[in-house]
Amino acid sequence: MADLIKCGRRCHAIGKYKRALTFFTKAMRSCPCSSGTKLDKCTCRNFEKIASQGGSIFKEAVEICPCNVGILFKKCDNPHHIQALDFRAATYEALGKLDQAIKDAEWILELAPRLPDGYLCLGRIARQQKKDEYAWKIYTAGIEASRESAVGSSPKLQELSRAREPLYRRFFTQDPLSLPSELVTQIFSELEYKQLFPCLRVCKEWTRTLTSPLHGQLWRDIIYPTLPNSCPRFDQLKRAVSWAGSGGARSILMLHRSLTPLTSSELTLLLKLSPNLQFFSAWPLPQGCSLPLDVKQWTRLKRVMIQGHNYEFHRVPVDHPGGFPKTFLQNAANSLEHLKFEGIPRQWFNGMTSIPRLHNLKSLEIDHYDRRDYGSSIPFRIFYLCDAFPRLERLHIGRNLPFLDPEPVADWPKWWERLWPHLKVLKFDTWSFGNGPRADDLGDRTRSTLRYLTCLNRGNSLQHIQFRISSPSRNGRCITSDDHDLLPGFDVGQFSEFQNLEYFSLREASIPPDRARNFLYNAVQAKKLTSLDIVFPGESRPADERVVEENIRHLQGYKWLCGAPSIHTLGCYNFRFGLDVEHGEDLSLPRFLASFPSLRTLVICSIRYGLERDRSHEQKVALESLVVAIIRATHLRTIHAVGFGGMIEQQPQLMQVARDHDVELTEDSRTDQWSDDF
């Protein structure tokens, strides 16, 4: 058979097609399956018709036809028999006899339906006939027939996959609802909530399927869009809550100041229909709207994010329409773990009676309104919250609550050992106390409050401290010092160990190195401290030789930190070094950074290299030289060069050095290590 096929291929190559047909036919008849007799092909099958009706080409090829020819027909996977038919079909193609070529291709399919040869041959002819969809179905049937074999297991399977590839995007279309229910839910979960409702208008089958209990997960997160004209109608929302299944919605989110067309009664009804609610957000709460006060059904509500509309939380008494929803939160006290709100009620500045008791609350993010309005100059007694939220782990005080009050100091000795024993994260975002007549005094009291907060539990529960606070006040008080003796005989200094501190950032204030040592030494020795910001002293500008010398002395003061094995992230702010950053006799920044064996991320930010509009050539060269020296001296993986106005990324030579050392050099800010719970 092999010799006959070889002769036929020679004849085909020189254009003697009829002679080639003779050799290929003789090769077919010499196969043991034919017993030397002339073979007939069953003509009952119509693969193209079956494919157009959505039938299985493979199944049709496998089944034995009950006709006289089909009963006598034998399956055969002899490669020479398959080759002879394949080459004969190609010869018929060359002669323009596509009907004969199709018969031979289908014959291969019937002889060996699990091999890719017949599908390749028949698909090729279908492409010549411009029947691309039929060809797509043939190739797909061949791949499915060989599903037990990996695509890369044979060249023919790879060829089959390549042949189908250009047709894939055009013809791989199917009703997504015909897929397994898990995939249907996953596909439609990618849509925005508002986009689900138009899907119900496709057909009745889609409506019935998508609203069935099987896909209740799709309707459990009600998210209001920012544009009011794209909001679902309230009657649609009511039905969607019922489609969500037992327990109703799991999330109701009204975000980004959307002009929410919900009335107080409508919002109350949605909440009552969702006893298994886990996340509620109204940012802001619709004007004059109140939340249910007489219902205690939300036993799974864990997260609440809420903002008062137009200062209403401060102006309106708690639990009144538009006011802070104290009772609503109190009714969810058993499950509520995360609370974020903006707008502190006026009553909170005077006492604890209006504060809900949330004994399971873990994280609190609290902010006020613009500091120019509504009591922003009144210091807030943060320690009142210790009794209301005893298990707090994360406290984040926003930028518009600049003043804190450590009162009532007289009660501290009896409270001290039980105040927030689980506090891990402490953030304070205000960077300026203003210039008013009381600003210095209020600023000092705020620093004292923060210092006392850091000393709770001897500071050993804290893992993350991040303050955006201005430089020390006129009397030199700093939160890392012990000059905060508001209560005689009560020494705050003895409550400072910080053995578990991992992250410390005072990005706006420079700390003397000796005070930083007192504050951080235990965490460094315990190999817990992983991230630290160093702010260099002095005015932001100008950057003269005096500033450079002062920066070098400041860096020398941190010799106690050099080589700390736990440090993997450092931030350096407000610095300026000379041009000779690599060979100076003093401890330079590159040498300092190179001493940390685990350092992988660096943040640099300094206005002392000039503003973008007036940065000199000398300043650009100095900064570029410094960054190059840092890259070469360290094993960094990422450098965040923040606030340089695109100058870093516009230096091709610098960027090439970074690529050569496999360092990502970017002007994007670093993502906070502790992500927001919301």
From TrEMBL:
Task: Specify the protein name.
Answer: F-box domain-containing protein
| Species this chain originates from | Claviceps purpurea (strain 20.1)
**Segments forming domain F-box:** 173-222
State the PROSITE patterns in the record: FBOX
Quote the InterPro entries the UniProt record gives.
Answer: F-box-like_dom_sf, F-box_dom, LRR_dom_sf, TPR-like_helical_dom_sf, TPR_rpt
